[in-house]
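Feature request, filed as a ticket because there's no other form

It would be nice if the structure record came with a short human-readable summary line next to the tokens. Right now we just get the raw output. Example of a typical job, pasted below so the devs can see what we mean:
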Amino acid sequence: MSNPLRRLVLVVVGSCAVCVLGACSSVKAATQPTESLTVRELTIVDEHGQPRVRIGAPLPDPKGLKRKVKPVGIQLMDPNGKEIGGLVMIDNLGIRGLCFDSEEGYEAMCMGLIQGQPGITFRHDWKDRITLGVVEGVASVVLHDAQGNPHLRLEVDKEGKTRVEVLTPTPAASR
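Raw output as currently delivered:
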């Protein structure tokens, strides 16, 4: 083989070897875990590319709705992109909550802390039906009618005093 041809072959083979080694070393580097990731929003999509879980600070408005406040947290969406629940914090209001929404879009089941007071609410047809909570040390369960009016309240205070109260909704409350 002539000297110039030999040099050309060595340069080509050497270049290929460097490229292969570079590619292998970059593959190894890509498999190493990232130590930290800082983003304002992270969206996880399903196999069809539809957003299903979003982590955000703040979270965007649900599809077709406008939030009055901007929560921080995790938004859960159905296969059509409609919000169906989430875990949120609304710092300026002192709210932390985990809620699951009905098909109609209202918060059907929520568990949370509102200004340090724990509570759980079950709603049906946009109305409160069962509320459980502790407010200023008093634990209570309240049962509501289909219009959201309270009818029965069970309470136990800090000292262990029990109270059962049958409530009669006022005509103004049932409108």
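Something like this underneath would help us a lot:
The chain has a mean pLDDT of 85.
The longest helix spans residues 3-30.
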